[in-house]
Amino acid sequence: MSMKERNVAGCIERPELLPDCDVPASRRKPDEVIETSLVRLADETQADNWRTGGLRACQVRGGAALAAASFMVQTPGPFHEGLQRIAPELSADAYRPSYTYAEYTVGLCYIAGTKGLPPELRLRAAAELVARGDEMGYAEARNLLPRSGWGLLTHAVREGWAVWTAQLFAEDETVPLRTRMKVGLALAEHDRPAGYVPEAVEKLVAHPDATSADRLALASAVAQRAPKESVGLLCRLASDPLVQPSHRMQAIELLDEVDAAKSQEMRALQTRLPTVRAARDQHREAAERAEHEVVAQRARETPEAVLERLDSEIQGILDGLDGRGSADWLATDLDNHLAETDWAAVAEDVAEICGLVRDEDIESALRSLEVLTRIRYGDDSSLLPDGSEPVTPDDDDFPRLTRQELAEHARDQAQRSWTFWGGLVEKHGWDTDRIHEVDDQWHEVNRHVSGVILQKAADHLRNLQQCLVWEIWPALVKAAKERNYGSAWGHLATARLLTDEAEHSEALWKETTAEDYSFDPMTMSWPRDVWLALEAWRRG
């Protein structure tokens, strides 16, 4: 039986595995031979040789079957003496078990789920399952025992066993309320360490759908056994407008014997409570609202609604990716800050670009898209479209700039400027002071080269920002929209290479403002008169 199969006694799913037991649910039931043997062993109407034959079959099979037989022999009850006589070798004081913990658990399942065994014996096996597995053991027991099998639970509590099972049963919303109230009353009457009131009893006393007489009976039982611990329960009854006025007064009278101050407080409260009918109407309206919410929740869980939410979630992530890398806001003032040579502002712009690309939220968004896409469209939905290949990170996808390139560009610009000046001298002749003219030209060339280099470094930063917001980031978003996540990850890796280049270029741009790009014109070839003028300028 799978976890999806339900028991007619309730709507609790059967656990596939139990604590410290790796036997699946489908194998936690005896075969026909063992089932017959267990029933025969417990049948007091059978002759001893027939019952002994059933025991021998379990011993030969061993494992869970032997564990089940051992539990039957060792468990107290009206059948105990007869089983001890049939199998004295399995008595608790003389038997050393030859089965594992998991096999014993499976043996308990055999007994709890075998029709034909005494109801008390099956309930004792169920209680042992609960003691071993708590909620999971309880779920297993609820699926193995029929509805009638739980009727002995009140008797078991009064005898002092199956108390923990009874508490879980009393809290089980799948159990009819009147049955829970009967078990709760047995729990309330059970003699246990002073000062302890089971949580299940507290919940039942406060249950709005239970009759006020049943609720009062529970609180009264606790008051008789543990007066001080019953104050809260009695106050809850006395202050609940759903409880009949006569029952509220009885609760107050019980309070008189325990806490006179609380009793007077509850008496004064009675005049301010709404009528029972008004309280019932309010409770009914609240129940209807809760039912409507359940219906709405079910509507939200329909396949169509789930697909709609998935589509909305996927689109929201895509819109977030698209917006974060938009040219409308990402480092939009970089051009102005470069023109103003504002170091701090440019550094903030570059940090904004790097922060976007390196943000872990971007990776999380792509991973979420992959998972949601597989859920929405199937496991093969993230495969590459036909004819496409994943994008691999490549630093050729964006411009690069090095110090060497800047130095070469500075030299080229200086040579070009000096060559142009030499042409003017050759065409128009010298001024009256040749040395002064060379000196002016030297300063002019240096200013021009510094400006050109600064502009080149600034243009490179602008190009990187434009490449990111107009090429790489849109390509990443487009690949994500097409569910081509291999390419999307490749574009993200390329964008991160670009941010490394942006930080490097920012450092170059700052260096150009302080770097000396002066050029020695005497490294060039000149006519004789110009060469002499340059030598004189250098000596001067």
TrEMBL record:
Top-level taxon in the UniProt lineage: Bacteria
Name listed for the protein in its UniProt record: PBS lyase HEAT domain protein repeat-containing protein
Organism: Streptomyces iranensis
